[in-house]
Design brief:
About 35% of the residues lie in helices and about 25% in strands. By secondary structure, it is α/β, with parallel strands linked by helices.
Length: about 80
């Protein structure tokens, strides 16, 4: 299966996604801080990154722009209305 990184400041949502993906056989790690998530995404350990758009300090769109300058890891953007 695949190795997945979740970058999202919503800890409850992260835990739910971790449980779901793990139950399907995927290896999943989470970062609830955008800066730590950026570093993790650059590690080369992940097949795909699930990235929240709205996060404090560094939003997901800027993180994606920065990530694209240094990596071609697959990214799925997550967004929700609050």
């Amino acid at each position: 299966m695949s190795s997945v990184l979740i970058i999202d400041d919503d800890q409850e949502l992260c835990e739910m996604v971790v449980r779901l993906l793990t139950s399907e056989g995927h290896s999943v790690e989470k970062c609830v801080d955008a800066e730590a998530g950026f570093s993790a995404a650059l590690s080369g350990k992940y097949d795909v990154v699930l990235l929240d758009v709205m996060m404090p300090r560094l939003n997901g769109l800027q993180l994606l722009r920065d990530l694209r300058t240094r990596s071609d890891v697959h990214v799925i953007m997550l967004t929700g209305e609050r």
